């Protein structure tokens, strides 16, 4: 099955700075890459996703980039705020013709005031 | 509003007991998934279903079963609970649109403690 590796496992940033989380995947046929944010005690919620026919996608302060050749994708958060503190998960489809997702182990982001 | 719910939200049980966790969605989604979340492992897929009477094993399916008798519900059963099954369980659902991946929406989770 798909193996998704996520780095770093923890990330501490000063408020206003940028945060970057990187994920790699193993199946070159994967074609959908969502990112979820999970606040303490809450459910994971989708914050942004990208499909394999697009190299970059932005939504206000967050952006995702995809490098299909290298099989990695990254989440970028600019101008971080205290409410960005959470656990972030990347995911990838296990096969191109399937709906299952394989998740990374998560990154705990702490934004220091 | 359409939503996805799980019950109970918290459960304490003893080893060897059978436990069933409920998941109900009102979006009329074809796809439903069960995950467990443990520290350091992210979300791991237990079982999933792509429609009524369809069930499939995920990567950590041993000791768990599911059934899909209607579109709205996918109950997860622990046949004989073990301490290793202490975890937070999330149900998720998504639409099935041919050739296109759609967002998975998660329920609020069930925290299970097996003593």
Q: What's the quick description here?
A:
The complex is a heterodimer of chains A (113) and B (115). Chain A is mainly β and 113 residues long. Chain A has strands spanning 4-7, 10-14, 19-25, 32-38, 45-51, 56-59, 62-67, 72-77, 86-93, 101-103, 107-112.
Protein topology:
The complex is a heterodimer of chains A (113) and B (115).
Chain A: E1 4-7, E2 10-14, E3 19-25, E4 32-38, E5 45-51, E6 56-59, E7 62-67, E8 72-77, E9 86-93, E10 101-103, E11 107-112
Parallel strand pairs in A: 2-11
Antiparallel strand pairs in A: 1-3, 3-8, 4-5, 4-9, 6-7, 7-8, 9-10, 9-11
Chain B: E1 4-7, E2 10-13, E3 19-25, E4 31-38, E5 42-51, E6 54-57, E7 64-66, E8 76-78, E9 87-94, E10 105-106, E11 110-114
Parallel strand pairs in B: 2-11
Antiparallel strand pairs in B: 1-3, 3-8, 4-5, 4-9, 5-6, 7-8, 9-10, 9-11
Would you give an account of this structure?
The complex is a heterodimer of chains A (113) and B (115). Chain A has 113 residues and is mainly β. Chain A has no helices and eleven strands. Chain A has strands at residues 4-7, 10-14, 19-25, 32-38, 45-51, 56-59, 62-67, 72-77, 86-93, 101-103, 107-112. In chain A, the strands form two sheets. In chain A, strands 2, 4, 5, 9, 10 and 11 form a six-stranded mixed beta sheet that branches. Chain A has a five-stranded antiparallel beta sheet with strand order 1-3-8-7-6, with no helix packed on it. Chain A is globular. In chain B, the strands form two sheets. In chain B, strands 2, 4, 5, 6, 9, 10 and 11 form a seven-stranded mixed beta sheet that branches. Chain B has a four-stranded antiparallel beta sheet with strand order 1-3-8-7, with no helix packed on it. Chain B has strands spanning 4-7, 10-13, 19-25, 31-38, 42-51, 54-57, 64-66, 76-78, 87-94, 105-106, 110-114. In chain B, strand 5 (42-51) and strand 6 (54-57) form a beta hairpin. With 115 residues, chain B is mostly beta strands. Classes of the chains: A mainly beta (113), B mainly beta (115). Chains A and B meet through strand 4, strand 5, strand 9 and strand 10 of A and strand 4, strand 5 and strand 10 of B.
